[in-house]
Amino acid sequence: MDKWYEKSGADGDVVISTRIRLARNLSEFPFPCKLQKKGADAVINLVKEAVLSSNSQLSSNNFKYIDTQKLDKITLISLVEKHLLSPDFVSDKIEKSLILSENESISIMINEEDHVRLQVMSQGFDLEKTFEIADSLDSLLDEKLSFAFDDKLGYLTQCPTNLGTGMRASLMLHLPGLKQSGVMEKVSANLLKLGLTMRGIYGEGSEPQADMYQLSNQVTLGLSEKTTINNLKDIAKQIILQERTVRSEMAKHIETIDFIHRAIGVLKNARLISTNEFMKLISAVRLGVALGEIKGVSLDTINFLMIEAQPAMLSKFANKDLTAIEKEQKRADLIREIL
Fold first, then answer.
1. In CATH, what number does 4-246 get?
2. Which sign does the torsion angle of CA 313, 318, 322, 328 carry?
3. Fewest C-beta atoms under 10 Å: which of 23, 48, 278, 283?
């Protein structure tokens, strides 16, 4: 079964993936910031039982339980690189666990910022279907767990910015056109006025890489999930149109075409490639594939490489902690083999 990053979906030239994340807390326990070990273990056991019990409709999704306390650092970081764990999840010391579907499209982080962070990811631009899956799973969990809820405030969360629906809907966008045209700051400022935000590749506090950005809702209180989804969808369509328009203009310039072909030339021949150089070059190649300038390479292949060539993923595959130079060599070998 294909993982979310192994295929491109609708509007895949611009939209890499769709994510719906729901934050929930169990009413009988303090928020994770005040949770002691005994309480943290109890939360883990309750959520684990709710998802994996043999008579649960949830169990039909072929979930596996992962005790993240027993994972080595390389494995943990590789899960962050695949967007299955948040950077905060890895850095904090409180007892945590992860429940993951077989194809990695559904992940449930236990005891991150909230007791439950339910995440569903899909390929391409697919907000409605992704939300439908998340909402269905949330309803099934709600039958077995007592979520903290207030009639006026909605779902109660550790951070006030998540109060209400507790939902973050986001799209991973590849925006080399808007980035290179120098309008990203203006776009981001306008989005804030509309209750949306543009973040880096790994969410809040992270920097954009490979011209990739996360577009997500910022308001969770006072708006329904449907309204939030529709707002995000409408704005995303405008950004996609703007990006494609800029790309069409860029394609008329020999400098752009030259940069694209130089990028794939380096990737196909280099013996050492750093993470930063790789992300810069793969963005150019992805643009070239989308424009039809590069033949014989698919967006599926590019999406796969953007995950598999990350530092911890390379070490995970090698089954050892690689040195910096070994990572650069392994990355170059992998890229040449796939391209």
1. 3.30.590.10
2. negative
3. 48
